[in-house]
């Protein structure tokens, strides 16, 4: 399957495409949405990673991103959150399997056959999009929400050559120290928790992974988020950044929950923050 546009819409003066292609990393068809502002480009690119249960559709329809992205001249790429389809491993629970990749390369059966999301994003999706569309690979930022916030932070820290800027909404700040992370990383990577540490943003920063790579990390967290204490734990990210000397702008937003109502409220400020760094 070559790259296929499955839908196209005029929005905010630009063009939104839904695309599908065959992935060698996941051995499945993969889907993404891509917004391009009006003009010739090449445009700076923001990669958005969505959270548990989401597809490429959630951000695209709920974030309210495209008016601001159009004004800023920013392209926005939103892939699906996991491989899908017949023969792809899954779980009955919402926090494992299809829709819950945690953006890692699984090493354990039955997940390893298809759940190669870190490799897919960093070595396949980004090169494909920069080859086929008017986006500038040298000016790329990354952001995401919840599981996708975890993915944004860890991929930026593990592949700093790909990303100039990184932000997150309600990220799973330390998956080695929360139930979601224990379940997913244990399933995908096995019982050796030393391997889990390589996908924990707080521990990576504490170990010096961010040193000299990002002038600032931006995080928004709602105070009324039902997952705040049990799963997200932004205080661990805050402590790691303080210890490592990494500048973190952690904005605790009073009364906001975990939903896209929260994300959409502060989306424009994140886009502006990235655009400033991707000039």
Short description:
With 279 residues, the protein is of the alpha/beta class.
Shape: globular
Question: How many distinct helices?
Answer: 10
What's the total number of strands?
9
Mean pLDDT: 97
Q: How would you describe this structure to a colleague?
A:
By secondary structure, the chain is an alpha/beta fold. It has a single domain, classed as Rossmann fold (3-Layer(aba) Sandwich), CATH 3.40.50. 35% of the residues lie in helices and 24% in strands. The protein has 10 helices and 9 strands. Strands 1-2-3-5-4-6-7-8-9 form a 9-stranded mixed sheet, with helices on both faces. The radius of gyration is 17 Å and the shape is globular. It starts with a strand and ends with a helix. The model has no long low-confidence stretch (mean pLDDT 97).
Write the layout of secondary structure elements.
Layout: E1 4-11, E2 14-23, E3 28-36, E4 43-49, H1 56-62, H2 66-72, E5 75-79, H3 117-132, E6 135-144, H4 147-158, E7 165-169, H5 179-189, H6 193-196, H7 201-206, E8 217-222, H8 228-232, H9 234-244, E9 248-253, H10 260-277
Parallel strand pairs: 4-5, 4-6, 6-7, 7-8, 8-9
Antiparallel strand pairs: 1-2, 2-3, 3-5
